[in-house]
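cron nightly-structures :: item 1 of 1
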Amino acid sequence: MGVATTPLQSEQARALLRALAEPLRLQVIEALGSGERCVCDLTADLGLAQSKLSFHLKVLKQAGLLADRQEGRWIYYQLRPEAIEQLRDWLAELGAQCSKPATPCR
């Protein structure tokens, strides 16, 4: 089980979902699903120009989905598991509530 996370507010969830809605960004997330990766590896594996990849990495990082670290001239990115867990929990709560019957009309 992961570390306890604070519940997402709706606006935070929308920001994460907007970041994930772009197919290339979703590919980046999937590529990082197996662990930390160097930008050089991501550009090669995803077939993207570094400038295009950098833009998408920036959006994902600003949304709170990625963490990065610099080692020499290389930057390494990894998923922030707590952000994934928060989004998962938000979606689970939404799923649990969506089957409630409507309040009868008067």
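cron nightly-structures :: done
The chain is about 55% helix and 15% strand.
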